[in-house]
Amino acid sequence: MELTLSKDEQRIFDGELGQAARESMEILVALGKIYGAKKMVPITSAQISGVSFKTIGDAGLEYLGDLAKKGAKVKVQTFLNPAGMDRSQWKEMRIPEDFAKKSLLVLDAYSKMGIMETCTCTPYLIGLRPKQGEHVAWAESSAVSFCNSVLGARTNREGGPSALAAAICGMTPAYGLHLDENRMARLIVDVKCDLKTIADFSALGSFVGKIAKTNYPAFIGMKKESVSEEKLKVLGASMAATGSVPLFFAKAITPEWNIEDKAQEITITQKEINDEKKSLDSGLKPDLVTIGCPHASINEIEEVAELVAKKRPTCEFWVCTARKTKEKADALGYTKIIETAGGRVVADTCMVVCPLEKMGYVTTGTNSGKAAAYLPNLCRQKVAFGDLDDILYR
Ligand code: F3S
Questions:
Q1: 193, 200, 222, 232, 279 from 270: Cα distances, Å
Q2: Which residue's CA is the nearest one to ligand 1's atom 1?
Q3: Which of 37, 121, 354, 367 lies in disulfide reach of 32, CB 3.0 to 4.6 Å?
Q4: Predicted TM-score (pTM) of this structure
């Protein structure tokens, strides 16, 4: 059966609602045809990637400016992934001025379309949290993983343009993870070791992502009491980075649990975790430690503040987070403690999408499997990987 449009959808496609909506509908219809969708499904929110000038460049900025000029407006609650810099601290962070100017133009174009300038990959930590079964169109890979896996909402891993098209039309083609029959795991992962820290869950995700590739893993053996949303977010982020995993299940932890009959099974012991941690770490002392990939929760910021209040780190460090979470950290006094210890709470951006390579850093420390995977290629950094009480004090 071919993709069928309702009368209202057909009107958008025919251009009755303006050029920007027509062009967006054309993108959605083309995608629907490629992936065999039979209909469109309404969405309740969209998350847009392609916000850093570093990743979209002049061509992307021109495209967005053009779309804004054509009168494009989003129809559903729509918010942004991290931008290339902190809007209020970019000078102190030594962000090049030209880059800063272009970054502000990108944000301005999105804002003209009615998009919230949240600039975070953890919208679900600042109240933008779809319910189980809701259809959305999110683009950033760690947010996609959390949304599907931990919240049980439904999104494909959108590209920047397709998420924006979905936001403008208020719908997306019903294929892939929007359909029950596709939300099935084909890889069972039996965790036979005790995972404690964010770096442990990063190592697990980094290892499993390489095996899973595009399959969806289902974890057994994880203890509910040793798992938190922070650990699940870094697990999903790491699997999305080393593999291309947009959905996982964890027995008795995630809201869904669907396994295919012929699923492959693997076992993870402490050895795999230790080996993965070693393989991610250069062993070098970092110039800068970056915490918060995906963006840190208020609990993570509190933990960092407690740690650095006891002992001052031996290097510069950032905690990357959403602006709304930073405001909470400011009010609770955590930002002050972190700054007193030589660190900075950075909002709106992250270690990967800001121009780290142009800011004089050579070795960056992280406890995130996703940052460890991306920093070498996207920021030309050597990586110091490990737990915070290690990398902050080398
Ligand atoms: Fe978020 Fe940047 Fe990591 S977008 S998931 S903090 S690479």
A1: 5, 10, 13, 18, 14
A2: 294
A3: 37
A4: 0.97
Q: Tokens for 305?
A: 């503040």
Helix (H) or strand (E) holding 46: strand 45-48
pLDDT at 26: 98
What pLDDT digit, counting tens, does each position of 11-45 carry?
A: 999 999 999 999 999 999 999 999 999 999 999 99
pLDDT score of 321: 98
293 close to ligand 1 (CB < 6 Angstrom): yes
The pLDDT value given to residue 110: 97
Of the candidates 120, 124, 166, the residue with the CA atom closest to the CA atom of residue 149: 124
Closest CA to 167 of 18, 21, 67: 21
pLDDT digits (tens, 9 = 90+) for 61-117: 999 999 999 999 999 999 999 999 999 999 999 999 999 999 999 999 999 999 999
- List the residue whose alpha carbon is closest to atom 5 of ligand 1: 294
Residue among 191, 132, 146, 78 nearest 293 (CA): 146
Instruction: Determine contact, residues 160/63, Cβ cutoff 8 Å.
Output: no
Nearest CA to ligand 1 atom 3: 293
**Token output for 61:** 């900025």
Q: Is the CB of 370 under 6 A from ligand 1?
A: yes
Residue numbers of the chain with a pLDDT score lower than 50: none
Ligand 1 center from residue 386 Cα (angstroms):
17
- How many angstroms separate the alpha carbon of residue 118 from the centre of ligand 1? 14
Instruction: Supply the residue whose CA is at minimum distance from atom 7 of ligand 1.
Output: 352
Give, using CA atoms, the residue closest to atom 6 of ligand 1: 293
The predicted pLDDT at position 48 comes to 97
The whole-number pLDDT of residue 196 equals: 96
By C-alpha distance, which of 271, 128, 117 is closest to 203?
271
CB 177 within 8 A of CB 253: no
Mutate to test the pocket of ligand 1, among 233, 239, 353 (most ligand atoms within 8 A of CB): 353
Residues 6 or more apart whose CB falls under 8 angstroms from that of 6 comprise 40
Question: Which pLDDT score is estimated for 132?
Answer: 98
Distance between CA atoms of 2 and 18, rounded to whole angstroms? Answer: 25
Domains of the chain from N-terminus onward: 7-179 (3.30.499.10), 184-276 (no CATH), 281-391 (3.30.499.10)
Report the separation in Å between the CA atom of 272 and the middle of ligand 1, taken as the mean of its atom positions: 24
